[in-house]
Amino acid sequence: MKSGHTSLTVVFVVVYLLAAVLQVFTLLWIADWMVHRFWRKGKDPDSFSIPYLTALGDLLGTALLALSFHFLWLIGDRDGDVGD
């Protein structure tokens, strides 16, 4: 549980929240589109859309988190006390 840490700078919190909000809005938009599409095809949206949305949420969340950390590294918002 103590494998590492990241200091909570203002820039980190803002970038993290932006990534989280982007993920939520993207998933809501895709869910709306997907549910309507499955309804038109006569399929139960609960049974068909939830597995896709869950997998997409995992993939998108991981990708956005990786991009956030890469962006923080590029702008120089590094953790100054890593290894202490």
From TrEMBL:
The domain of life for this entry's organism is: Eukaryota
Q: Please give the InterPro entries that the UniProt record associates with this protein.
A: SLC41_membr_dom, SLC41_membr_dom_sf, SLC41A1-3
Q: Which UniProt keywords apply?
A: Cell membrane, Ion transport, Magnesium, Membrane, Repeat, Transmembrane, Transmembrane helix, Transport
The way it spans or sits in the membrane comes to:
Multi-pass membrane protein
List the protein's name. Solute carrier family 41 member
Locations listed in the record: Cell membrane; Membrane
| Gene3D superfamilies the record matches | SLC41 divalent cation transporters, integral membrane domain
User: According to its UniProt record, which reaction does this protein catalyse?
Assistant: Ni(2+)(in) = Ni(2+)(out); Mn(2+)(in) = Mn(2+)(out); Co(2+)(in) = Co(2+)(out); Mg(2+)(in) = Mg(2+)(out)
- Protein role: Acts as a magnesium transporter.
Where do the SLC41A/MgtE integral membrane domain residues begin and end? Answer: 12-67
Which SUPFAM superfamilies did the record assign? MgtE membrane domain-like
Q: Record's family?
A: Belongs to the SLC41A transporter family.
Q: Which Pfam families match?
A: MgtE
Chain segments annotated as transmembrane? 6-31, 52-75
GO terms assigned for molecular function: inorganic cation transmembrane transporter activity; monoatomic cation transmembrane transporter activity
GO cellular component terms, A-Z: plasma membrane
GO process annotations (BP)? magnesium ion transport
